[in-house]
Amino acid sequence: MNVDIGNALAAVAEPGLSRDELATLDERVARAHERIERGRTDGEFGYAALNLPRTTDAEAIRDAVAPVADAETVVTVGIGGSALGARTITSALAADGGTSHVVLDNVDPDHVSRVLSELSLAETAINVVSKSGTTAETLSNFLVVREAMVEAGVDWTERTVVTTGDEGPLAALADEHDLPTLAVPDGVPGRFAALSSVGLVPAAILGCDIEGLLDGAAAAAETLDSSLFECPAYAYGAVAYGLEERGATINAVVPYAERLEPFAEWFAQLWAESLGKDGRGQTPARALGATDQHSQLQLYRAGRRDKLVTLLRPRERPSLDVPAAEADALAHLEGTDLGELLDTELRATEASLAEAGQPNVRVELDRLDPRGLGELLYAMEAACVLVGELAGVETFTQPAVEWGKQAARDVLEGDETEKTAAIEDKHE
Ligand code: PA5
C-alpha cells in the first residue's frame, strides 16, 4: 500500500502542512508509536485489535461455518461494528455469481420484510453478530428472521452461526440451542473487529481467502514504525491529524472502485466513533469515484476550506475496452480501457483539487485482492489509533453511542430512568 501526501503539503494546499510541521509531527508519532506498541504487547483494550492478524484463528472460523457452507445467501444480522466490516470484506472480495451476502442492520420493517420475501430460507445461512449480545436492533431482527424460518419449516438451528461475547442473552440463546459460536476476541472494540470472526464469517462462507486477508493485514502490521516517513499508515494518520488541527474538519473518502464503496462506510464509523470526542474529530464524508465527481466534487474543490479529500484506488484493475461506435465523434473512446478511464478521472480530480489548493491524499493498493484489502483495513485502523494518540482522545470507547443504546433499551423495558425522562421531555 502506498500513501502519497504531496498534495497535503503547504506548498500545494491551504490548509496544508509545512515541512517543519511534519518534522514536529514526526517526533510526536515516535512517542505515539511507543505507546501503541506497549498497548499491543500488553494486549490492552483497543490496542489488542492491532494484533488480530496473528491472533485470529481462520481455521476455527472455517470449522464453525462448515455446516452452512452450502448456503445460497448469507444474512448477517448485526449493526455498526458488527456489520460494516463483514459487508466491506465480502463486497471487495466475493466472486461474482456465487453465494450472496445480505446485511440486516437496520430495523426498517419495509426493508426487513422485503429481504425475507426474496430469500430461499432453506438455502440461507444466518450470521448473528453482537459483541454485547444485547443490541435491540440485532436481537429483534434475529428473532424476526428466526420466526420466518420456523414458519417456512426450516430448522433455524442448522442454519445459524453466532459471534458474540462470553455473556449476555445471545450467548445464552446460542448455548441453549447448541449453535456454532465464535467468540468476539478480548480487548477488541466492535469497529476494530473486522479482522476477527466479527468480520470474517460471511467471507468464509462465500469462499473468500480470509487467510490471504489476514496475511495482508500482518504485512501492514510489520510496517508500523516510529517515523511517519517510513510507515504509510502513520503518514496517513499524521497528515489527517495535522490537517484537522489546521481546520480540515471533514475527511471525504472517495474510493475509485465500486467494490470499495462499503469501505467508505466502514471508514466513516471507524473515524467518527473513535475520534469524535472532546469537541474534536474529523467528520467523515462518503463518496464514490468517478460517480461523485459529477456531484460532490464542486464542493470539495470550491466550497469551504475545511476538508481533506482521501482518494483511494487499486493500481491494477481488470480490463474492459470500449468498442467501436458508428459516429466519428465517438472515435476517441474506441479501445479505451474503462479502468484507465477511471484512473484518468481520479488523476483529473486530484489535479483539480490541487490546482485549487484543496488538500488531498492518494491511497493506493497494488490490487483489490485479499492481501490488498487486509493491508488497507489494518493500515486505516492503525492510522485511526495514531490520530487518537495525537489528539489525546479515548479512541476505543463510544459513550455517545452507548447512551443511545441504553436509552432505547430503557424505553423498551419500560424503565423510568434519566434517559427515558430526557426522551419524554423532548416530546412534550
Ligand atoms: O463499534 C461499536 O462499538 C458499535 O458500533 C457496536 O459495534 C454496535 O453498537 C453493535 O454492538 P454489538 O456488537 O454489541 O451488538
TrEMBL record:
Ranges in coiled-coil conformation: none
Pfam family, one: PGI
Pathway: Carbohydrate degradation; glycolysis; D-glyceraldehyde 3-phosphate and glycerone phosphate from D-glucose: step 2/4; Carbohydrate biosynthesis; gluconeogenesis
Reactions accelerated catalytically: alpha-D-glucose 6-phosphate = beta-D-fructose 6-phosphate
Uppermost EC category: isomerase
Key word NAD present: no
Annotated SUPFAM superfamilies: SIS domain
GO MF entry, a single one: monosaccharide binding
InterPro entries: G6P_Isomerase, SIS_dom_sf, SIS_PGI_1
Localization (cell): Cytoplasm
UniProt keywords, alphabetically: Cytoplasm, Gluconeogenesis, Glycolysis, Isomerase
Chief location: cytoplasm
CDD domains in the cross-refs: SIS_PGI_1
Domain of life: Archaea
GO cellular component: cytosol
The protein's Enzyme Commission number: 5.3.1.9
Active site: E273 (proton donor), K405
Gene Ontology annotations of biological process type: gluconeogenesis; glucose 6-phosphate metabolic process; glycolytic process
Biological role: Catalyzes the reversible isomerization of glucose-6-phosphate to fructose-6-phosphate.
UniProt xrefs under PANTHER family: GLUCOSE-6-PHOSPHATE ISOMERASE
Family affiliation: Belongs to the GPI family.
Protein known as: Probable glucose-6-phosphate isomerase
Organism in which the protein naturally occurs: Halomicrobium mukohataei (strain ATCC 700874 / DSM 12286 / JCM 9738 / NCIMB 13541) (Haloarcula mukohataei)
Upper lineage: Archaea, Methanobacteriati, Methanobacteriota, Stenosarchaea group, Halobacteria
Gene label: pgi
